[in-house]
Amino acid sequence: MAQTYAPEVAGLGTTPITNSFGGVQGGRVRRFRATVPFTGQAIADTVVLAKVPAGYTFAYGIINATATLGASATIAIGVAGTAGKYRAAAVQTVTGPVLFGVAAAADDAPLTAEEDVILTVAVAALPISAEFAVVDLYFSAP
């Protein structure tokens, strides 16, 4: 039976053995937390969630909303120019924690430059209320 190696550990199958990048094998997970108040968030508004340093690799995110966004308001999480890099635009239809992540971002190479992660509101404004969402972004780094 053939044995193959995942790209992150390909060096284990070479001679001499080479170490994997510490940001994805044996790295430390760092959390970036941001609270997004619903009041005042109109269509096309962006909210800066985090400034992630170069060298970090995206793992996943969690949105924990105190209320749903209604039937039509959508949110995307990404960067300027790629609004859905980490979470494609979608309606948040439940309260409580919801896991998110775009596979193409999760298997990206480490960031080559610092990155401002933003939440983008689309289709409709967020509900006008005292409700909010907490967004946790998880990245790994050596």
Structure explained in plain terms:
With 142 residues, the protein is an all-beta fold. It has one domain: Satellite virus coat domain (Jelly Rolls, Sandwich), CATH 2.60.120. Helix content is 3%, strand content 46%. Strands 1-8-3-6 form a four-stranded antiparallel beta sheet, with no helix packed on it. A four-stranded antiparallel beta sheet has the order 2-7-4-5. Strand 4 and strand 5 form a beta hairpin. The longest helix is centred in the last third of the chain and has 4 residues. The mean pLDDT is 88.
Strand order of the largest sheet: 1-8-3-6
Distance between the termini: 34 Å
H-E string = EEEEEEHEE
| Radius of gyration, CA atoms, in whole angstroms | 18 Å
CATH architecture: Sandwich
Shape descriptor reads elongated
Range of helix content:
under 10%
Q: Pairing-aware structural class of the strands and helices? A: mainly beta
Largest beta-sheet details: 4 strands, antiparallel
CATH class: Mainly Beta
Give the number of domains. 1
Residue windows where pLDDT falls under 50 for at least 5 positions: none
Oligomer: single chain
- CATH fold category name: Jelly Rolls
- The DSSP helix count reads 1
Descriptive keywords:
elongated, 4-stranded antiparallel β-sheet, 142 residues
Topology:
Elements: E1 28-37, E2 46-52, E3 57-65, E4 74-79, E5 82-91, E6 96-100, H1 103-106, E7 115-122, E8 132-141
Antiparallel strand pairs: 1-8, 2-7, 3-6, 3-8, 4-5, 4-7
Question: What would a concise description of this structure say?
Answer:
The protein is mostly beta strands. The chain has one helix at 103-106; strands spanning 28-37, 46-52, 57-65, 74-79, 82-91, 96-100, 115-122, 132-141.
